[in-house]
Design a protein that fits this description.
The chain folds into two domains: 226 residues, Rossmann fold (3-Layer(aba) Sandwich), CATH 3.40.50; 118 residues, Beta Barrel (OB fold (Dihydrolipoamide Acetyltransferase, E2P)), CATH 2.40.50.140. 22% of the residues lie in helices and 34% in strands. The chain has eight helices and 21 strands.
């Protein structure tokens, strides 16, 4: 399966720049997720790849085949791009049976009737719905409808798969099962996949690479582990889950490492950074699970427990450490109001106070490449 390359993709609606020189590559056979809030440009990017949106500038290629080139006025129609697309609403025809829905992309390609029947049977077995071929969409559960939409996208053997929040209509338990099932299927098929979601759990659990988007730009890219533990910006850190932020003064230890000196946190906080911190106050991000909380005298900072929330398999605690309010996780309840808090080695990461302002049509775009 060939890679997908998006280069300097730009699109403006009115005075709002929805895509601001978006630039990335989806490697052959990999699962890449566009993650971000509503309005960040992730669906517009996906629909541009699919051919349902026409950007103002940039190029889109699938392997050696150029799908879109604004400068050359080259734009292959969606139906000729040979991509499989699953929409958020599934877009199933209610008057057609499951088999007829799946067969539709084959029929518009004038595929031989015998081959259509064979292929429909193959993909329905692939999504474990061969026994529902004669049913109608209204007779299926949400999860089954989602699998029918996926089967239809796979029916014509696409060279890549584009998924626009396909689990958003499923309940939480079914969504968990669907994530695991789709991830296994994608790996088995080895199909290049672009997945759009605003759900950080989906992005972290399924992706080979995550592209965090904000205001039409990619603000962070990397593996799930890298993006989660080294978000690089406050926006990415907050969007990928709970996070503590502490601001203070950075000082070098003289050994290539840095410490953050913050009021009330004796000893400083060692933090990671690939570049020298900027002059003045800086901020580090610390995930709640990186804080160790104990009720017995030990090393670390003294803290007061101000609130506790039970979340099933763990407890979320709000702690006051000097002037700072932190959140931390434990697997067992705390029985005292005063505790000690220690930081796991290497858990603090430098972040920028970043949020990118929305740009107007007249603004000068800045390229964020991956």
């Amino acid at each position: 399966m060939p890679e997908i390359s998006v280069h300097e993709l730009t699109q403006t609606f009115g005075t709002t720049r929805v895509l601001d020189q978006v630039d990335f590559t989806v490697p052959d056979g990999k699962f890449v997720t566009l993650l971000g809030p509503s309005g960040c440009g992730k669906t517009t990017t996906l629909m541009s790849i699919a051919g349902f949106h026409t950007p103002d500038a940039g190029t889109i290629a699938h392997g050696e085949r150029v799908l879109f080139d604004a400068a050359e006025h080259h734009n292959i129609p969606a139906e000729q791009r040979e991509l499989g697309v699953v929409f958020q609403s599934y877009a199933l025809w209610p008057h057609l049976t499951v088999a007829q829905n799946v067969a539709f992309p084959l029929k518009i390609r004038r595929t031989d009737r015998a081959k259509v029947k064979q292929r429909v049977g193959e993909v329905l077995d692939l999504v474990e719905l061969g026994h529902r071929a004669d049913g109608h969409p209204h007779q299926l559960s949400g999860g089954q409808q989602q699998r029918v939409a996926l089967a239809r996208a796979l029916a014509h053997s696409p060279s890549a798969l584009l998924l626009d929040e396909p689990f958003s209509n499923l309940d939480a338990k079914l969504r968990d099962r669907a994530r695991e099932w789709l991830g296994d299927l994608q790996r088995d098929l080895g199909i290049t996949t672009v997945f759009v979601t605003h759900d950080q759990t989906e992005a972290l659990s399924m992706s080979d690479e995550i592209l965090v988007m904000n205001h039409g730009r990619i603000v962070r890219a990397g593996t799930p582990e890298d993006v989660y533990h080294r978000p690089g910006s406050r926006f990415a850190a907050e969007f990928l889950g709970r996070c503590n932020f502490i601001t203070g003064d950075a000082r070098s230890t003289g050994t290539g490492t840095w410490l953050l000196d913050a009021l009330g946190l004796t000893g400083g906080i060692p933090f990671r950074t690939d570049t020298r911190p900027a002059p003045g106050p800086v901020t580090v991000a610390i995930r709640p699970e990186a804080l160790t909380v104990t009720e017995t005298p030990t090393t670390g900072w003294q803290a007061e427990v101000t609130h506790t929330t039970f979340l099933g398999d763990h407890y979320l605690h709000t702690l006051r450490v000097g002037p700072h309010v932190l959140t931390a996780l434990t697997t067992r309840p705390l029985h005292t109001a005063t505790v000690r808090v220690a930081l796991t080695s290497g858990a603090a990461s430098l972040v920028t106070e970043d949020d990118i302002p929305q740009r107007s049509e007249q603004s000068t775009p800045v390229l964020h490449s991956v």
